[in-house]
Amino acid sequence: MVRILVNLPDGFYRTAGLEGRFARLAEFGEVRRGSFNTAEEIAPGLDWAEALIMWSWPMLTPELLDRAPNLSFVGQIDITQKAARIALDGGLALSISRGGFSPAVAEMALGLILSALRHITDHQSAMRAGTEHWVSDFPADIDATERQLTGRSVGIVGLGGIGKRLAELLCPFRPILRVYDPYEPEGEAERYGATNAELSELIAESEVVVICAASNPGTRGLLGPAEVEALRPGALLVNVARAALVDTDALLARLRRGDLYAALDVFDEEPLAADSPLRSLPNAWLTPHRAGGILASVERNLDQLIHDLAAHIEGKPRAYALTEDMLPGLDG
Question: Each residue of 75-94: pLDDT tens digit?
Fold first, then answer.
């Protein structure tokens, strides 16, 4: 029997739909639960644990791992490049389930694209307010900024789990699909009906640009002032990754000019300030960092970690093992 330490926010333990997952963990051995935010809080549990299930904090530093002589498996929902390097260098069997968010995030990206192109939420808000426009001089009074997705040129920045699933979801719309991801192996884009492109080409040619990449030193500011300025007039920029990938001041300036549209699920500061200028721009569609945050994502996160813990105990290959070549795709 294995000694398993579970360190997750308290809300996990109060969600009825997750109780069965924790019961499955108990089948493997003794389980201790906690919601530890600091190294000092988690250290006593690490002295005892042989396996650890957690989100991403507190980071397992070399000093903390020195307190965990029996620890052999760590399953985390998310992890930074630095923390992953420490765990791998420490010889731990490390599994990551951040991919459990990918289906939901990709679906939100598709939803934001459709909502922005077709002004769906604008129509819904107008209907609630009683200010909707009914076409009376068809087709002369149709809003020409309302567009279809089918056949449009779409660029995906980051062909990880989110980008790949989004490419699959886009397939029925028959887009001209370009991908920028310098870390993906040759031929990967073609598997998803896309062509590889340099970032400058993707920006210049795409009517819809979707940011799906991880936020790390290699991607922060990926779309700086020059790249934001180079987006096509009338283009839609969708960000379901991290705000740090796009220069916010440059994006605000371009949105205020009125020749760009944006659909954003992530922001430099969260919650978004009540007086943020983004809130008043009619060409910006905003959601409160909800892309991955549905119960199905959490269930996948835990299922994947439980699967890999069972595989580790039985000496079998782990489906969600983190390996050296995966580090560039992590936030950091």
Answer: 999 999 999 999 999 999 99
